[in-house]
Structures
1.
Amino acid sequence: MTAAPVLEARAVEKWYGVHPAVRRVDFSLAGGEFLTLFGPNGAGKSTLLRLLSGTLRPTRGEVHLNGQPLQYGDPEWRARIGVLSHQSFLYGQLTAEENLRLYGRLYGLPDLPGRIEGRLREVGLWERRADAARGFSRGMIQRLALARTLLHDPEVVLLDEPYTGLDPHAARVLRGVLEQLKDGRRTVLLVTHNLSQGLELADRVAVQVGGRWISDEPRAAVDAARFEHVYTERVGGAR
Amino acid sequence: MSAFVRQVLAIAGKDLTLEARSRERLVSMLTFAVLVAVIFSFALDPTVRGRSIAGAMLWVTVIFAGMLGLGRSFASEREQDALLGLLLAPLDRSALFLGKFLANLLILLVTELVIFPVYALFFQLPLGRGVGGLALVVLLASVGFMALGTLFSAVAAHTRLGETMLPILLLPLLLPVVIFAASATQHLLIGRPLAEQASALRMLLAFDVIFVVVGALVFGAVVEE
Amino acid sequence: MTEVQTDSLASTRRWAIGLSLAAAAGVLATLWMVFFYVPTESTMGVVQRIFYVHVPSAWNAFLAFVIVALCSLGYLWLHDDRLDAIAVSAAEIGVIFTTIVLTTGPLWASIAWGAWWVWDPRLTLTLLLWFIYVGYFMLRGATENPERGKRFAAVLGIVGAIDIPLIHLSVLWFRSQHPKPVILKPEGPTADPRIVQTLLLGFLSFTLLFFALLLLRYGVERMRRSVEALRYRQAMDSPVTHDSQGVYR
């Protein structure tokens, strides 16, 4: 892991009128770190991820990428971030390949056909490349979305509850890809309810409740069994 | 090819591909337009010659059919939150605007290609003479219409009222387009030379340039959450 | 969120009071002149006096929109909430004066020309301005996220301001194509200096009135936003509803 922080949230707050979604989050992620963020529904984790991805402006505070505050008017730096959400960002009437080709062209990626093939094979969808996405099951959609997320080889990967609604096969594929993301040069923030999966891959574990981080610990300091017990008890149940 | 142009074409291509596959906007716009023509035929007193108000009928129909199509222009983006996916990419917001604008324009032009002959049929309009001039008027008016239309369909899509906000916002702003287009169309249909419509065409062109540029510049503020 | 800036609010209030007094004096003087000083216009009679209210109101309506447009531009560019506060204040006052124009116009027209509404270019433009104002307020209230509503309204403000001259040109052009039998001369015979004097005082006092109202409304708007900011700070300091202790230790 490199020492310089890759992704930082500095006193970040997001308010909708007088309703706070994120109330002051401060943290920094170093290069190569894998942080898993837990928390109940409504804790503002998705909002935080939107803020970190630069698609939402904080009411207060700043998000820094590689030491620079995000320049919302300039789109260049967005190529360094990849986001996987429970919404797939895909077009149902386009084929798997066409969806990826669209994003590839938007990102200006060289050797697009090769990349598309590589990613589709990685998630096991190469045979279905010419099929319209709306015919895909939830698991296949998510696998395609994963391919879309990593198509441009982002150095920062943000995942918002990617395991939601996945069948075991898709979950296995996802798990495999996430393991590969721990290659030391990619920084990953995973939001999940899935305690076992989340703890397994994490270097660092944090919990967000009511818009704030109430804990942020290295994985080594966390005892899995106790964590699960206290988390379920205090925060309101694992899903 | 510059990155910007590549992005514009990617977005336009995506919208046109989606429309070509579903055809839902085209079908609804065309059905609406033909039905309006039918209603006009029966609403008008038979002693009124369709030819004397053709310019007005045509452009009223085009404006409302166009707004019908615009209402759906962001529908595909809402499905799987695809708009967010586009915004995450290093996509220039002006390129997003221009891509959608081009796609909307093409879809409208295809619709107009059907509407004008249908009206010619129903109201015995002499489309033959001056058809080149007519095409120019249609093109210039459609550009301005779709420039403002693309901008405000993005606005309307993110309000609680949705598509119903579109006429309220657009109609006052489109008055110049209606005035110049209807007038030029009417004059061309009664056989006046194209050269006489020069001032109307110039105004349409000015309108087009201004609002394509303004739309591209402010679109970022509209799509940002 | 705007911070409470008590000293700038106090100076706003001082100016507002000063301008209100000046405006009140000016408007009263104008009214006096309208009823006792200015001669009755020969062709249109007594009803023509409404013109001394009608024309300055129109000026205010468009002045207000210029302010809306400039502040909207600034708001989109600088993200300064105060600019939005000025814009919405100006818009509220602008729509009131627009409505005044649209009511005094037909009143005058019904007697001067025998018709309640003629497509007079200026009146038409004012009608469309009215619709744009309506759209402006609708947008502000129509979004889930109020910040987004402000931004949408700002976009309409800017586009509207750019479009208004084009609308005006198109309506003039339309009328040149379709000349109306009624020739409009709202100024009447311009020979009499008393008419010009009254009109000028009318412009001056209405402009003062506009800025007085603007500052008053802006002051109220700033206070409202300060209350919101205080509520927000109170909510921020309240404890997390779930356990705020460490989850495990």
2.
Amino acid sequence: MMIRSVADARRPALVRFSVDGAPVEAPRGEPLATALAAAGHLGLRESPRLGGPRGAFCFMGVCQECAIHVDGVLRQACMTPVAEGMVVELRGVP
Amino acid sequence: MSHVHDLAVIGGGVHGAAAALFAARGGMDVTLLERGPLCREASGVNAGTLTMQMTRVALIPYALKAHAMWASARDWLGHDVGVVVCDGLSLAFTQAEEELLTFRAGKRREAGAPIEIVTGARAKEIEPGLSGEVRVAGHCVVDGFANAYLTGLAYRRALLEAGVALREETPVSGVRRETDGFAVETADGIVRARRLVLAGGVWIEPMMAWLGIHLPIKTLINQLSVSERIAPVMRTVVGIANGLLSLKQYPHGTVVIGGGWQAVGDRERGGVELLPERLIGNARLACHAIPALKRARMARAWAGLEAETADALPAVGPVPGVPDAYVCGSVHSGYTSGPYIARLLADHILGRAPEMPLFPIDRLLAPGGAAVN
Amino acid sequence: MTEAKDVIVIGAGPAGANAALEAAGAGLDVALIDEQPAAGGQVWRAPWPGLERPPASNEAKAGDALRARLEASRVDRRFGRRVWSVTSGFRVDALGPDGNEPVTAPILIAATGAHERVIPFPGWTLPGVIGLAAATVLLKSHQVVPGARVVVAGSGPLLAAVAAGILKAGGHVVAIADIAGPADWLRAAPAMASRPALLAEGAGWTLKILAKRVPIHFRHAVAAAEGEGRVTRVRLKPVDSEGWAGSRKAVEIEADALCVGNGLVPGAELSKLFRAKHRYDRLRGGWIPETDAFGRTSVPALIAIGDGAGLSGAAPAELSGRLAGLAAAHDAGATDGAAFARLAHPLLTERARLAAFADASAGMMALRPAQVAGIAPETIICRCEDVTRAEIDAAFAAGARHVNQLKHFTRCGMGPCQGRMCGDVAAELLGQRVGSREAVGYWTGRPPLRPVGLDQLIGDFDYADIPIPKPAPL
């Protein structure tokens, strides 16, 4: 699980969004992959061929491991800022 | 004196590979020369569609036979090339498309393709993922697709097992007539054979020039794109009446979008550049036909070269004025019909009467037969 | 409506941003495109929009300064745009919040950067295992530590930076595993001394690590990451100076996060897309375009700079950016030959002075063939398609002699990451069989340059507007 460091950083106000139906809070605008990891959601999906658990790996938009469904569309979580009311489904592509 | 093969096939796509395979199984000593890896040009990068609904009327009887070969590839080729046999739907969204579709489906049906026109509602029963805006559709149960990039792997093993002397990564720079056959010039030396098949796809034109024949072959540069693996969104092969869409989803989940949108390139350089407006146009047709695709991502696009003669019919048969030389290719939907057409030519070369007529190229040459280059 | 510019720069890291500033300073109309919300690339990545932090490090200060210079300039900044297609002329298509935005210019500067190389090991795909560069993003740009008990492993300067960064943020580094040994670092020291500020920074990291008594395992690599659904244990194995696994006992560590990286791989995406001439340069990270001193490739008006064109580090990249901007201004006719030469000279001299440090740094990160040769057969190489080393070996046995053929035989590289995560290692595996990296080549560059949502690509349209050709012959 990731830990938000407190020293010296100022974060926007928390917003609420849902992850597989359950509520999660994170500062507005935080990259979704980080917000999920801070909330304990390290596993985001399964690999399409062998079904192994996968989570964000590169955090810079390259590896595609964090591609999950956000408001019904497939988006890379590391490139998606958290917003109020966002609906997140941890099921990857299939 | 170096070894003289019975047959040299130049060009390792599906036509050349199948011709070499059946000739070898018929007892001939065969060599196949391919400048790159086997089946990596058109045969390795096309959309893999095995449909009657985009096949020319004159080729329908051949495509039907070839479809049966593709469907049974595991038996005669030893590899199923990922073939999926399924229904095909050719869609009409407008009045004009409906007229075009009805007319063409009728002609194809007369030629033997089991195509019937169904309502949009019926089409949606056959393909639940279909758009609700379809007016009518051509429905054919003899349809499906192969996984083109597996073609090389499939033929390679079969060719080696049949005893074909397979020469990949062996570009041919020219061919000379000799007393008892042909001398094929390569960087590794001369390869000799009594008979010759030129199966070079878009490169048939420069190959024929080796023999002093001027056979113009147009090079089409087709764009294709593919999604990443996604949940099932379709279960048929989908096209549009005007022909600009081919769409299918593979068992492993990727959706391939094709339809003959033209990229930039030529026979010398290959497919050099894909045009964004055309990738977008192709994707729009795909999403219009199967709306669920809008939730997917395009993962990659590429280009493949396709050969076309002046009358868009095959170049298959003896080379006029050059005994023991044959040409095989530029079939138009050549991947679909390739294995059968190549087998016909192999039969002819083996001295057996081919089951169906070949497509002699005399009709494509300047009056007076072979033109001197 | 397609906008026309004098120069388009793709990539707003140290190289690209400086190229844009220099060209705009010479009076050219410059567009600078990047998919991140702000300039800085990876090395000077900004905090995500809304997050505030004081600029604590040299890198943070440099990034803030660069962003300020851009704000004050006339550069047309297009951030949050994902470039998916680039065609000759040049035309650049980028997807933004309002859909597809084409823009054209006669001169294109490619500064798309490098991505991380991770040598696969069993369990590297487990959630909780992330890259070293990924860890720097979390630390610098998100102000987050990767876990409660973090192992930091791999090779190169990022190791100490990440470990120290975690410690500074109040996190707990339970172990560091460095493929290199102290002798390797000592060997590199003289060259690194040519950049005293950076050397001091590195020394600072080392002191912090030593002060916290973090166990450092030199000449160790990750043998495996283990856990149910996420990493909970990391096993390290001793390796020799080339990277071969030794026979001494493995070290087992309880950890909930593993940050691992083995250097960087230049993207060279646009130069490959345009089929420029490339060469394989192991020190510079892999296949890179052949360029002149200003980044001009063998494709007219295509300039490639920064780590994406060959690993060199941030300071040399800045200079390369300025040199490219000057070259663009000259080639566009805005600067005469004499002025160009006069302005370029000090930059070329300074960049040459930095070369020793850049080479030493790159050397610490370069691919170690033994490490790839030692990958166990059942290890996943291609993450997107779950292709194992055994399958790659089988493809070679079936006749694959080039990475394009390897792709066709195994689907390795066909997934959405477009071969970025696996490409260097897959090519090394095949290259070791075939005999050289040159022989096995690289994957053909094609659009889309990144996966793009079909919904974004198609936008709003009427079916009737889609061009329909003459019917095909019946």
